[in-house]
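We emphasize that the prediction below concerns an isolated chain of 229 residues; any contacts that depend on oligomerization or on bound cofactors are therefore not represented. The input was used exactly as deposited, without trimming of termini.
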Amino acid sequence: MFLLGHSCWSYLFSKLTGRQVKVNLPAYMALLAGVLPDFDIYFKPWIQHHTYTHSLIILLPICVILVIRFKGFGLAFSTGILSHLVADSLVGTIPPLYPLSDFQLGISLGLPSPADTVLEVGALGLVLVLAYLNGDYKLVTKPRRESVYLTIPMASIVTLTLLFAGDNNIPLAAFAFSRKALTLITLGHAALIGILGLVVLQGIRAVMIDNRRPGQASGSGSRERQPLG
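Result of the prediction step, given as a C-alpha cell string:
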C-alpha cells in the first residue's frame, strides 16, 4: 500500500483504539505510526525494504514494550504501527517471520489495483469524517502550537515517496498519472499533504502569536488547546 493509505488507516485505527482505552493520541502520532515501518527506506542499502520492519517477530516485541511503558497511549500507537502490516498483507504480502524465514503472508489484491485505490482513497474520506467528529478539523481552522508537529508525518510521506522512487529509478511524475487508479491515489496524496500543510501553517501562526505576547499565552494557542480525540 502507498503512504496515503498507511497514514490514513493508521489514523483511523489509532484514534478509535485510543477512544476505547480513553486516551487522546495526538493527530501527528496517529498519522505517523502507520508510516514508521517504511522508515527502512531511509536506511537503504543497509536494510532491505520490506524485511525487518515488516516482520511480526520484530514489531510485536516493540509494540509490547510500548504498551507496558506507555499503557493506553502505547496501545493506540502500536495499533497504528501494526495497521501497516495489515494493509500491506491485503494488497501484497509481508514476511511475518523474517529474518527466521522468508515466508510471505498476504492475499495480494494488487498494487496498484481497484481494490487498493478503494482502500486508500476511502481511508482518506473516513479520516475526514472522523476528524470532523473528534474535533481534529480545528487544527486546520484555528492556530495551535501543537499543529507544528504535523510537519513530522508530512515530511515523512514526502521524503519516503521521493526516496523510494529514486532508489527504484521510477519517473515519479509519469508513474503517478500513468493509470486511472494511480491518478486517484496521487490526488489523494496531494489532498492529504495540502491539508497537513495548512495545519502546519496554523501551528507556525500560533507560535508567532505567542512570541508577540511575551509572558502570556495566545488566545488561540491556549484556549483552543483541548483534547483532539
